[in-house]
Design brief:
Elements (H helix, E strand, L loop, with lengths): L2 H34 L5 E7 L2 E7 L4 H7 L9 E3 L3 E2 L3 E7 L2 E7 L4 E5 L4 H7 L8 E3 L12 E6 L1 E7 L2 E7 L4 H7 L9 E3 L11 E5 L1 E12 L3 E10 L3 E5 L4 E12 L2 E14 L4 E8 L10 E2 L2 E2 L3 E9 L3 H4 L21 E3 L8 E4 L2 E7 L10 E5 L4 H7 L2 E9 L3
Parallel strand pairs: 1-5, 6-9, 10-13, 15-19, 22-26, 23-25
Antiparallel strand pairs: 1-2, 3-5, 4-5, 6-7, 8-9, 10-11, 12-13, 14-17, 16-19, 17-18, 20-21, 22-27, 23-26, 24-25, 24-27
């Protein structure tokens, strides 16, 4: 290539490079100019009736910032911008105007306030709470437009739970409110006296009853039963144990209800027999007794209902038979000849008052006699017909059935 051609080529390259540099500078100038017309974005905290939200904006006017944030102002609302710097940031506070009804129970009035909490609203309204009074909501309760705040007189109540008693100062409410106020948690079966729905009254005492169900297993005795076997030949006063009874054993499971730790009720849920009981078998007489029984079954080796081989004689109320007794028996019973036959006998081997049957007649032992009457089976029968009758009736052998022992 000639020198002339190379020179021409270098001129073209320099012109192209200059054009590129000019285009880059033109774009840079345009971009800088365009950015200079757009405001910088910054963060602003908006506090609307106590609620906070932070927005990013490039607006300078607080009203436009609030509008872009979707916040609509009502008549009477206030906007505070003391902590707001245009283009820099800060806080914009919106205070909403609210109407509340407040005061002591019998003197409620309407007030317009900007406060967000009840405590602040009452102060703003110029209402002071006297000693012994309290508002029906806490100082931290949020103020709502149209709400009513009553200042009521306080009174004392107490609540007992889990062995501890708490005293509370309240202005009303129910037992349920008191339970909640006292931080007491009730389980499903727990209950209170008075009931949860009862309104609180001055000096009311409330008690919480804790209900717990537990399973309890006990080993118990099974009492044996008695089976009676009838014996027609025996007097009804006679009985005899044929087989001794024995208690059994069982394991019983209960569902037990405890109230404040004390058992109040139980339901049987299971039973297992560990050892069966053995019946007691008793043979009893069914033959009607002709005398009133006294429950004595034996005395002096003689048993009730026993039949004894005996020998009888007779005596009367004369001085020969009765001696110095003069008509008075050992038991104190009076006898005399000519009286209606009382069916008395004398013997030493049966208790006074005993009743025996001899030859179809019942006789009561009312008297004692000589040593001969001490032998078992030996009896002396009284006859009111006189001494001659004693010889007439004479002596003899007999069967003696014991119907009663003693009076």
């Amino acid at each position: 290539m000639s020198k002339l051609a190379n020179a021409a080529k270098n001129v073209k390259l320099r012109k192209l490079f200059s054009a590129v540099i000019s285009l880059v500078l033109l774009i840079s100038v345009f971009t800088s100019t365009a950015r200079a017309d757009v405001p910088n974005q910054y963060d602003v905290k908006i506090i609307d009736a106590g609620k906070e939200v932070t927005v990013t904006t490039n607006q300078y006017n607080p009203s436009e910032i609030l509008a872009n944030a979707g916040i609509v102002l009502e008549d009477g609302d206030l906007v505070e911008t003391a902590k707001f710097n245009q283009g820099v940031g800060g806080e914009i506070t919106v205070k909403r105007l609210k109407t509340i009804k407040a005061g002591y129970e019998n003197s409620l009035k309407h007030y317009k306030v900007y406060a967000n909490k009840v405590g602040e609203a009452l102060k703003e309204a110029g209402l002071k709470i006297k000693k012994g009074y309290r508002a029906d909501c806490t100082a931290d309760t949020a103020v709502k437009d149209g709400m009513t705040v009553k200042i009521k007189k306080t009174f004392k109540v107490s609540i007992k739970a889990d062995g501890k008693t708490q005293k509370q100062t309240v202005i009303g409410g129910t037992v349920a409110d008191l339970v909640k106020l006292s931080g007491i948690k009730l389980c499903k079966e727990d209950y209170t006296k008075p009931a949860l729905t009862k309104k609180l009254k001055k000096n009311m005492k409330v008690e919480v009853f804790r209900v717990v169900y537990r399973t309890k297993t006990e080993t118990q005795k099974i009492k044996y039963k008695t089976k009676k076997v009838k014996e027609k030949k025996w007097l009804e006063t006679k009985k005899k144990v044929i087989k001794k009874g024995k208690n059994g054993k069982k394991e019983v499971t209960y569902k037990v209800k405890y109230v404040n730790g004390e058992e109040k009720d139980r339901d049987k849920v299971d039973e297992v027999i560990l050892k069966k009981a053995v019946k007691k078998i008793v043979k009893v007489g069914t033959k009607k007794c002709e005398v009133k029984p006294n429950g004595v079954e034996s005395a002096n080796g003689i048993k009730l209902g026993q039949v004894i081989d005996g020998r009888y004689t007779h005596y009367c109320a004369c001085s020969t038979c009765n001696g110095a007794g003069a008509g008075t028996t050992s038991s104190g019973k009076r006898i005399y000849n000519g009286m209606k036959n009382p069916y008395y006998i004398a013997c030493n081997w049966l208790p006074l008052g005993s009743v025996i049957k001899v030859n179809g007649h019942n006789y009561t032992v009312v008297d004692r006699g000589g040593s001969g009457l001490s032998r078992k089976g030996r009896i002396d029968i009284f006859t009111p017909e006189g001494h001659s009758a004693c010889y007439r009736y004479g002596t003899g052998n007999c069967k003696i059935e014991v119907l009663r022992l003693g009076w």
